[in-house]
Design a protein that fits this description.
This protein has about 300 residues and is mainly alpha-helical. It has a domain of about 200 residues. It is built from eleven helices and two strands, in the order H-H-H-H-H-E-H-H-H-H-E-H-H. A two-stranded antiparallel ribbon has the order 1-2. The C terminus is likely disordered.
Length: about 300
């Protein structure tokens, strides 16, 4: 009797594994939210209707159960190790630093442009070590959790079913749909477009390296500097290091939506995306690699 190969995925199609994974995430997240509402509001749905799902606390609420679901799917459905999603850090430290640096550079370039043109003014500097520590911890955990789900599990499995560019597009659109900051009832062109470019920036490096640390540090640096440091996210849930004031056209500054709702950040992010693509393509080009035996 021939023994089945236990190393093969339980479900052959990568796209189907992603679909079942999404269903499992929605179920576990819904159950977690229901338990939270039942315990906090005693089942009072009218009182719970005003919940803002974009707050760090609620975004982090399903982290543990979702991580458990991810581990179960990777271990027993994909039949791979959790580290194979791209969590090996050794040899990727420079990429992690580069990811964080690129995010900070992109945001600071957009903010500096607004500052020079008079659309942005920082009116106060408040150093609150506790608030910065809590903000950094929240953004770090949220970045790790989000990248493990969207770039790690989803993009990793989609690559096995589709060409890289299509897998990246699908994973980016999934990130757009499930981003609590973007709802179909409050469509905003620049916010949605910036989210798409952000998703492409996060996933592009993964296509070439199959490693998550660039995107984790990029995501962490982006969210931490956008809100807690520069104070231009439009949704400040912690005391920010810089108190900002935006003036002028809403499309240029983002207005109440923050910098992520502006054409300014769209332009800076698009330039960063193009630069990242050129760098990754040049490094992957066989003509740019040394020829064995040749000095």
């Amino acid at each position: 009797m021939i023994k089945a190969d236990s190393s093969k995925p339980l479900i052959r199609q990568g796209w189907l594994r992603v679909l079942l994974y999404i269903v499992a995430l929605l179920l576990i997240s819904g159950i977690t939210l229901a338990i939270y509402i039942a315990s906090k509001f005693k089942g009072n749905l009218s009182a719970a209707s005003g919940l803002n799902m974009n707050t760090p606390a609620l975004q982090l609420l399903p982290v543990l159960p979702v991580l458990v679901v991810t581990y179960i799917f990777r271990r027993w459905v994909d039949r791979e190790s959790i580290n194979s999603l791209g969590l090996m850090f050794r040899g990727y430290g420079k990429q992690a630093v580069a990811g964080g640096a690129l995010a900070i550079f992109t945001l600071c370039a957009a903010a500096l442009f607004l500052r020079i043109t008079g659309h942005l003014k920082w009116v106060d500097f408040i150093f609150d070590a506790r608030a910065l520590f809590l903000a950094f911890g929240s953004t770090a955990l949220l970045a790790f959790f989000t990248e493990l789900v969207f770039r790690g599990y989803m993009l990793n499995n989609l690559i096995s079913s589709f060409p890289g560019w299509l897998a990246l597009t699908i994973s980016t659109l999934l990130y757009l749909v499930f981003n609590p900051a973007n709802t179909f009832f409050s469509f905003d062109f620049f916010t949605w477009t910036n989210t798409i470019i952000f998703g492409l920036l996060l996933g592009l490096n993964y296509l070439y390296t199959k490693n998550l640390w660039f995107s984790i540090f990029f995501h962490m640096g982006w969210k931490f500097f956008l809100g807690p440091v520069l104070g231009v996210s439009g949704n400040e849930y912690f005391q920010t290091l810089l108190e900002s004031e935006l003036n002028g056209g809403v499309n240029i500054t983002g207005g109440a939506k923050g910098l992520e709702g502006s054409v300014t950040l769209l332009a800076a992010s698009l330039l960063s995306l193009i630069a990242l693509y050129v760098i990754l393509r040049s490094k992957s080009n066989p003509l740019s690699q040394p020829v064995p035996g040749r000095i």
